[in-house]
Amino acid sequence: MEVPLSAGPGTPTRTPATPAADAPRTPSTGTSDFVAAVQDRLTEFFATRRPIVEPLGPVFVDAADALEMFVLRGGKRTRPAFAWTGWLGAGGDPDSDEASAVLAACSALELVQACALIHDDIIDSSRTRRRFPTVHVDFEQRHRERGLAGDAAQFGASIAILIGDLALAWADDLVHAAGLDPAALARFAAVWALMRTEVLGGQVLDIHGEAVGDESVEAALRINRYKTAAYTVERPLHLGAAIADADPDLVAAYRTFGTDIGIAFQLRDDLLGVFGDPEVTGKPSGDDLREGKRTVLLAEALRRADATDPSAAHLLRTSIGTDLGAEDVSRLRAVLTELGAVDDVEHRIADLTDRGLAAIDSSSATPAAKEQLRGMALAATRRTA
């Protein structure tokens, strides 16, 4: 379920999601009711920030509204879903008094995601996100429209960096305001700290890898492991398990499943970044090629081209990261396919998915959670957006 919001400057129109009267208190993941329940927690949290934000004046109100708009605009709520399922699989009771606090803490992952996306869009110079201007582009446009002094692009990037920082700070605030009991909060906080460091470390590895021109498959996989897998699947499951005080064997199974499915998720994203339909993905076709992203897809293609087709290797190295037209993108797609890199990535996705599912199948997670995680894994690795 998505919330209709204004995309432009000014105050966003908010329509809080409201579950049906006969809906369960804590709906199942993979349903519109679960997305609506997360939406409600986030909407309620943003309402609590307004008395804090408003005394700082309209400029900061606009920035906070932009963050709220970005978070509530949509999304699959994948990370809260994995955290919630991790809690259920470790024996959490969805009808307990604790459930509301658990769902609120899980929902805080959407603010971490917002921070990562806002900053990633600046780093990648992306102009759109979910068919809307990225946050830095939005504020760049506001600068121009209002005739402000200084460089519009620099202004947009600066404000967006701070809005991303605000998202990360507010993620912590939401966790501490969720209402977890002190012991559960302490267990949650230890995993939360690891996750935040890993996602930031993965981003540093990504930027550094591009700067030094590291073209290895191993480097790309390491970045996927920490930049995406850790905070998309592995640590969210671990967070849910921590709240439930799960035993070490179940935590280990969750982490194996989460790492494998999380990397497979990113590999699917890499394919969509080159071959995805813009009408479905919400991003221009071939954006990853223009941005010069050092993906496993590109690394594998270069490895194969260096061994068998030097002209293809030269084409890839001189084309990636440039202002490519539609015909250029089509040509590069063909090269990636002909080299067998696309098939290689598809095989990696299948192998990782099988390994992850085997880990969860042999775990002590509840049967219902195992079934749910299987469905979530397949949805994440076979998606088209």
Describe the structure.
This protein has a two-stranded antiparallel sheet with strand order 1-2. The protein is globular, with a radius of gyration of 21 Å. The chain has 385 residues and is an all-alpha fold. 44% of the residues are buried. The protein has 17 helices and two strands. Helix 3 (78-89) crosses helix 9 (217-243) and helix 4 (99-107) runs antiparallel to helix 7 (152-177).
Global mean pLDDT: 91
Element-by-element helix/strand order = HHHHHEEHHHHHHHHHHHH
Number of strands: 2
Global morphology: globular
Q: What structural class do the secondary elements suggest? A: mainly alpha
* Low-confidence regions: 1-24
**Strand arrangement, major sheet:** 1-2
What is the quaternary state of this protein? single chain
Query: Counting H and I runs of at least 4 residues, what is the number of helices?
Result: 17
Q: Profile the largest sheet.
A: 2 strands, antiparallel
What share of residues is helical? over 70%
Beta-strand percentage?
Answer: under 5%
Rg is 21 Å
Task: Give the N-terminus to C-terminus distance in angstroms.
Answer: 16 Å
